[in-house]
Structures are given as C-alpha cells and as structure tokens.
Amino acid sequence: MYRKYWLFEMKLLLRQRKNWFLGLFLLLFFPIFFLVESREEPVSLESQKHYEANMLVAIFQQFPETERENPEGAAIYNNLTEQASLVNYQLYYLSEGRHEDYVENGLMLNELRLELHEMGNKWIPEHLVYPREETLKEEALLSYIQANDLPLEPESTGATHYLVAGLGAMSGVVFYMFVLLAGSEILVFDQRHRTVVSDFPISFFKKISAKISGMFLYIAGCLLLGLGLGFWVASSESGSGNFSYPVLLYWDGGFEAVSTMEYLLYALGLMMLVMLLGLIVSVLLNQLFRNAYANVLIGLGLFLLPDLLMGAGVGASFLQLIKYVDFAGVLDGDLAIQLGADGLDVQHVALWLALMILLFALVIFMINKLTYTSGRKVRDA
Q1: The pTM is what?
Q2: What pLDDT digit, counting tens, does each position of 143-199 carry?
Q3: Residue 137 phi/psi, 5° resolution?
Q4: Nearest to 54 by CA among 64, 42, 46
Q5: Which of 69, 80, 107, 209 has the greatest CB tally within 10 Å of its CB?
Q6: What end-to-end distance do the CA atoms of the chain give, in Å?
C-alpha cells in the first residue's frame, strides 16, 4: 500500500504547475548564472600583487618616522620591508613564469604577515591591514598547489569554477526559500482534496515520509539536471575546467585547500540536509497553520529573526542554528567568522542539521499524537 501511495503522490506532484515552475527554475539557474557571470573578468594574480605592493607603499608613507628608532617599531618596519621585497619578487617571478619561486616567496610572505598580526599591526592604519583570514586562505592554497604540482592559475575560467560560484549564489535564503515554496502545500493539498486521498488506509507518518521523499527526489533530480545543464553550457563556451584544482574549505577552525570535486561533494551533501530540513519544517508549519502562505512567510521569518534580534542587541544564539542553511558560508568559513564560532565547520553543521531534522520530526509526532488523542476523546464523549 505504501508503494501505491508513494506513486500516487508522485503523480500529484508532477501535475501541479507550481512544481513544474520550481523545477524549471532549478534547470535554468546554472546556465543563466554562467551567462551573467562569464561577462565579468576575474582578477588576475598580477593585478592582485600590484594592489598589495601599492598597499605597502601607502603603509610606508604613513608609518611614523619617530617609531622606527625604538625596538618594537624597528621590528615592524623591517617586517614590512621584507614583505615589500617578497611582493616585488613575486611580480618578477610571474613575469618570468617561475611559478615555483612565486609559491615559495608567497609562503614566506604569509609567515611575515602572521608575525605582523602577532605584533598587533601597530602604527598601521586599519584599512591597510592585510586580513589574517585572507593570509590563512592564501597559505592553504599555495601549500596545496606546491604539494600537488599544480599551475598557479587554471588555464581558463572553466565550468568547474562556475559550478562552485553558482552553488554559492544559490546558498542561504535563496535555496531555503525555494524548498519552503516547494513544500508550502505538503499537507494543505490533502486538506483541500480529502476525497482524493481518503481511499488510502495508511498511517500519518507513512504519508509524511512518502510526501517528503517524493518532493526530495524531485528537487534533487532537478538540481542535478540543472548542474549538468549548466556544466554543459559553461564547458562548451569556456572549457570544462579542472576538478583537481584547489578550492578553500573551512575545517576545524582553519582553512584547508581541497579539490574542486571534494568541495562540490561537501556542498551537495549539505544541500541535501538543508532540503530535508526545509521540507520537514514545511510539514510542521502546515500542521500548525494549515496555510501555504504562512509556511513561506513564517519560514522566512525564522531565517531573518536572528539578524533582527542581533541588530536590536538581543542575544539569541539558539536561533542562529537556522543560519546553518547557508551551506556556502559554512564551507567558505564566512558564517563562522560572522557568528564568531571557530568550530562552525562542515562536520559541526551537518551534525546540527541532522539533529534539527530529528527534533522537528519529534515535534510533528507529538502534535499528531495530541491531535489524535483529543479527537478521540471528543468522539468518545
């Protein structure tokens, strides 16, 4: 009976125009993203190094001459002088194609930048301080490139780059809202069409599992097809790229460089958990409010509430759990920096997403049990 009900739910799902529209959105998102993103020229390493050299020139111009005489000021000034020398050498190595020397100088440069942070960046204007997080990211990338004997830059901005960037653009409120829209009528539809679904003698939780699994497979299928279509469009225009090229991943309080393929697998894994969470939240909101619009508005409100409370100076750290749906922010470390939580990496977030799914499932079970018990008492009376 469960199989028949599941197939029946899939037929209903595929007949709803809303679901066709949402599926079309996923199919076209990545090809359209490529067409928009490909118009922008990426910043070259040479441009980045010229920018860093100009920053150091500005620091030298503003560094107090009187402080160069004392031991602490002299140490900082000498550190900056060595940094400027290494950056200029990197520009020279880039022009000569000596990439191994560029990487070695880059690793030494990062050590000096970290030392300067330990000294407190005294007498350096705040807007000219090279961020510690950026230093750690660059160190991870250069170490990976050196260990795997990879080129400094890919030959072209291929399809793999656009897949990573496209998933980042979809992360957070965009994908979360998409799932809420997809699940907005997950129970409400049955209430409007009782005569259609009443013929199936199946328990409430089996119905829920059939609905969630059917919608999950539909969204996941459209997402993977959209990724495939986007990859085909991007690769036909700019090449397939390199799946072994490094992408930064936040892990255990620091940054690690992993292959593009590994990064994509982590991103898709977190997306699947976010999708399950969004669908089970939709079931709960449908159960409480029996309204498709309330499902979307309240679900969105839960996502925005932590930011609103923080803006008002109210601390509610437990509400920040909903921010974990920003899977790209988790992978890149941006969410950990924003929330000031060093341990907020992939494994931490995956565990909490799974726990939230189980918690919401338990709440749904308790509400259904209470509803059934109260309804039975009314009938008995």
Answers
A1: 0.88
A2: 999 998 888 876 556 788 889 999 999 998 999 999 999 998 888 877 766 655 555
A3: -65, -45
A4: 46
A5: 80
A6: 33
| 247: its two tokens | 């992408």
Under DSSP, is residue 88 helix (H, G, I), strand (E, B) or coil?
helix
Instruction: Report the sign of the C-alpha dihedral through residues 210, 216, 221, 222, in that order.
Output: positive
The per-residue pLDDT for range 213-223, each reduced to its tens digit, is 999 999 999 99
What is the bridge-based pairing of β-strands 246-251 and 254-259?
A: antiparallel
Contact criterion met (CB below 8 Å) for 241 and 318 = no
Domains of the chain: 2-38+156-371 (no CATH), 45-148 (1.20.1440)
259: enclosing H helix or E strand: strand 254-259
Q: Is residue 133 within 8 Å of 337, Cβ to Cβ?
A: yes
- Mapped onto helix, strand or coil, the DSSP state of residue 36 is helix
How many C-beta atoms surround the C-beta of residue 380 within 10 A?
Answer: 6
pLDDT at 36 > cutoff 70: yes
Contacts of 178 (CB under 8 A, 6+ apart): 22, 25, 26, 219
Q: Which residues of 261-284 are buried (b: 16+ CB within 10 A; e: fewer)?
A: ebbbebbeebbbbbbbbbbbbbbb
- Reading the block at residue 228, the tokens are 């495939």
DSSP string of 138-200, one letter each residue? HHHHHHHHHHHT--SS-SS--HHHHHHHHHHHHTTHHHHHHHHHHTTTTTHHHHH-HHHHTT-
Buried b (16+ CB within 10 A) or exposed e, 327-343: bbbbbbbbbbeebeeee
How far, in Å, CA of 287 to CA of 284, rounded? 5
Dihedral of CA atoms 347, 353, 358, 362 in degrees, nearest 10, equals: 150
Name the residue among 316, 309, 328, 325 with its Cα closest to residue 357.
325
Between CA 276 and CA 98 the distance in angstroms is 49
Q: What is the dihedral of CA 90, 95, 98, 103, to 10 degrees?
A: 30
Q: Which two structure tokens, joined as six digits, stand for 176?
A: 């979360």
Query: CA nearest 184: which of 299, 270, 274, 271?
Result: 299
Determine which helix (DSSP H) or strand (DSSP E) holds 223, and give its type and residue range. helix 204-238
